């Protein structure tokens, strides 16, 4: 069975669609209360809290 080649317009649409999905994925905002909100147990959150404490103590 031969593999059919996409026409130029369809190849472009496929590429644009893929790039659009990637852009939307990267551009999504994390909203308060959403499931993707940063956990307080996350190492990055712990580091930020420690830095905030050190900055407050330095003042």
UniProtKB/TrEMBL annotation:
Listed Basic residues bias regions: 1-15
Region (Disordered): 1-20
Domain of life: Bacteria
Protein name: Spore protein
